[in-house]
Amino acid sequence: MAAHFDPPEYPCKKSTLPPRPKLTGEQEGKYKQVLQFLQEKTEFPTSEKGAEKNSGPMEPLTDEEKAWLSEECILRYLRATKWNVADAQKRLLSTLGWRREFGVERTRSNTITADRVAVENESGKELIFGFDNDSRPCLALRNGRQNTEASHRQVEHMFFMLERAIDYMPPGQEQLALLIDFKAHTKLGKKVPSMTTGRQVLHILQTHYPERLGKALLTNLPWIAWTFMKIIHPFIDPTTREKLVFTKPFPDYVPKEQLEKEYGGDVDFEYQHAKYWPKMNEIADKKHAAFMAQYHKLGGGIGLSEEKMRQPLDADDQATLVGGMKKLSV
């Protein structure tokens, strides 16, 4: 069987989508309060600290940011704050500031680009590959392939990949699955993330990506990784802790058709950076461009449905989008 080099674009037929929970009347009311709060604001903080102190430079929202502030996004923050309206508003402002400052927004001058973090993935230590049984995009973290020293760029790379995994989400899915493998790579030694990096990533994930983690499967944990997990365990919030699955077979959670042979799947995948990296980013960019095209088609603004924005474009809109992307690439 020929080796695969590219990531799958869509879930396989075996994957399903869990039903979306219905809101109570009280929850609907709280959602509307947060939505109105965001719609009435004209300027927003440009840093996490500025949001916390309600000071510093302020800027209006871009279309990208308005699209991020979807109906589902607001509901994620409300669930994460146990439906406390004031806390949800505060956390949304904090994340907006962080996103602007950190560089995950595509349209800002400080955006983290594929070229900037490409060296971090030359060993294939992180992969967006396949979808789990619930149609969540799978982001594989292969810590044994760590190829660089601890740095801020490592953290940038982690959240660059997380944002790309979000681009891969099909309509109706808001979460991703992490497949974390600690197996040492023979050529790269037995590196594990530093404690500082681990805590920083955990803080960002729990603070600025609430309700985004659906499942985290961990395998091949050596004693040093177990020690790392025990140290960091108290910093993991209870909701995240419930989603951790240790040393269970990956095929129990991911269809074999979209899982590497190394983990019990049927896919003979070979990581070649020169092939995988541009293709993974090309697919993510195409999906994000379609998402934004739907945002404009739906009229724009805060509070639109992510599920609707992730719907496939019709043929005419797709042709217009492809033509526009070709012009941008020239």
TrEMBL record:
Residues 116-271 form the CRAL-TRIO domain. One of its GO terms (molecular function) is sterol binding. Signal peptide: none annotated. CDD domains: SEC14 (cd00170). Keywords: Endoplasmic reticulum, Microsome. Gene3D superfamilies: CRAL-TRIO lipid binding domain. Coiled coil: none annotated. Residues 1-29 are annotated as: Disordered. It is found in: Microsome. GO terms for cellular component: cell periphery. This is SEC14 homolog 3.
